[in-house]
# Entry
Amino acid sequence: MAFAAPFDRIDPTHRLVVRSPSAAAESDRPDPLAVENRIVEIAMDSADAVHCCLDRSFLDAADPARTKACNRLHRVRESDRVLASGEPEYRAALPADRDAVRAYLSVDRENTDAWLARVFGIAEFAIITDDSWLYRSVPHHDHIRELNANAVDGFLDDVTASLESIPGSGVVPFDGLGTWQTEEYRYAVTARSIRRSTDGDRWQTFDLDRLRAVSLVPERSELLLRWDSPATDSWTRRAFRTVVGRGSTEPPSRVSLPDRETTAEFAGALREVADRLEYEFTVEAIDA
# Structure
């Protein structure tokens, strides 16, 4: 699922990430859907319409109020589709239908049926202007929360400011925070992991939730990484990850980089993602 022409030529610039650390109490975890709705409100301030693909039967069964809101939407002709999903597509004109959008995107953690409807009853939605798009989401895939910061001046700044009060949430560059080549591996830092590859195609992934400390050793152009052990992995899962990862699933304890500048860039990317998303690991420089 993605955009139809001509919006399919406009690439996302950033993605929304909402972390839910497993150690946190349920009441302390931010609801990703409620966080997303903050972005929706900001995007609607500058948008002309919201397009959504709905599973109407599920919505009908889950929440009559939400169904009433959906009945205010207009079915989009095939030639006017914005989304490439095979589901029926509906349009809410802004600002006239803003309340209807709020109603069908509403979140109630205490009402399990309504919460599930918000996740699975909406196949996909996008907030658009006449000639671009600002935000796209596939609610049941938490990695598809995409922003186009180029659509409207100040959009990214407003989103970033709105998320400052929500621990573990933020927007990060869509393609990750950088990639670096060593003699043996290629490394990449994303919002959730350090990734490692020998061929640029198949990657081993190491969750940043397990990372506890990064020590920068400028004189040796290397990073020392300290990790926690996986808390709940069974031997079958470890064996599977070993097979698909082409070798040991143990995360790297040492990364040797070509020079001091590259080492500082890698460490800087880790420090940035730790600051933005409030990971527990630290990034400190030490003497060789």
